[in-house]
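Structure first, sequence second, as always.
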């Protein structure tokens, strides 16, 4: 027979635990409803198809530099409501997208990273979300193969040899693995850095802990640069035409993409300017964009670029199936089975 005092104490502990769980669920549910109401409030005004001159400036790139190889890794998956990927669809429909990181083998600069994917977890191994809104709307499942730095080591690539990390923007899906590249210079659009420094809110997409650990920044200013291909601004990262960044603001105030020249192949790493192939092929704007009109303009430019540069492959920011379909020795898509 269990003493009544012990039984009462256990019952009180059970009730406290039970009510805390119910409270957390209630807060989570209210957060989802609040997020949906904010994102659904009002209707976007229809945007006109922009007129884009069918002219490619300095295309192909005048310099003869090439990246030897591109490695693609998947650091996990992100499940979120369909309207946050493509504008249409029901909020109840969930889509799962990749969280990739790309590693370029440059003949002079060594290993270069474009986007780090996600990494951070608490002591219990659970993913640490950047804000309550992100946790309410999205579910991140980190890869069991580990973060980008670990997967690189498993593939025989040394993360400590990375001197440059390029990020499409400062969202957690781009910066979550920065801690694996402590000595690298992080290349970011100046506007993203200016807008996001010091931001702390209930709705932020920023992984503040990862950003604050960065020791060296390179801030790219597109305002005074010359047009490249079909885009208004450019930044030749290494001065050899092998990796040229272009401004693709819209999803964020400082979103950028990279045009990478490989042997017999040219890739456009669109980053968060195009979440999936449908984002640019059908110009399907996600519900959550910082600058909707700029997103619209750049999505149409990516589409026109792909039409005019027939040898170009557009790689969306969160869909590795595009690379899986390529037959090129210059592109290696790593899987857990390959490196495990």
């Amino acid at each position: 027979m269990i003493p009544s005092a012990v039984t009462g104490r256990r019952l009180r502990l059970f009730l406290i635990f039970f009510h805390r769980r119910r409270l957390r669920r209630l807060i989570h549910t209210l957060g989802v409803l609040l997020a949906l109401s904010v994102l659904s409030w009002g209707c976007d005004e229809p945007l006109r198809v922009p007129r884009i001159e069918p002219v490619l400036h300095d295309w192909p790139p005048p310099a003869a530099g090439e990246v030897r190889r591109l490695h693609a890794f998947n650091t996990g998956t992100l499940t979120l409501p369909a309207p946050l990927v493509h504008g249409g669809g029901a909020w109840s429909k969930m889509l799962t997208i990749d969280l990739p990181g790309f590693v370029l083998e440059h003949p002079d600069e060594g290993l270069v990273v474009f986007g780090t994917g996600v990494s951070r977890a608490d002591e219990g191994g659970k993913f640490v979300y950047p804000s309550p809104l992100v946790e309410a709307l999205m579910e991140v499942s980190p890869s069991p193969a580990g973060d980008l730095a670990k997967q690189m080591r498993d593939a025989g690539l040394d993360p400590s040899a990375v001197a440059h990390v390029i990020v499409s923007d400062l969202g957690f899906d781009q910066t979550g693995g920065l801690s694996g590249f402590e000595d690298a210079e992080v290349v970011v659009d100046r506007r993203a850095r200016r807008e996001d420094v010091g931001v702390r809110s209930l709705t932020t997409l920023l992984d503040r802990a990862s950003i604050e650990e960065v020791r060296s920044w390179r801030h790219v200013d597109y305002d005074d640069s010359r047009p490249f291909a079909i885009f208004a601004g450019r930044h030749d990262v290494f001065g050899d035409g092998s990796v040229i960044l272009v401004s693709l603001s819209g999803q964020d105030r400082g979103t950028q993409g990279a045009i990478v020249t490989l042997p017999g192949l040219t890739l456009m790493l669109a980053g968060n300017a195009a979440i999936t192939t449908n984002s640019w092929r059908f110009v399907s704007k996600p519900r959550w964009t910082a600058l909707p009109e700029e997103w619209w303009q750049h999505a149409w430019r990516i589409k026109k670029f792909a039409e005019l540069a027939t040898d170009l492959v557009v790689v969306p920011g969160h869909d590795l199936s595009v690379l899986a379909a390529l037959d090129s020795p210059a592109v290696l898509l790593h899987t857990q089975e390959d490196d495990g």
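Margin note: The domain at 59-339 is CATH 3.60.15.10 (Metallo-beta-lactamase; Chain A).
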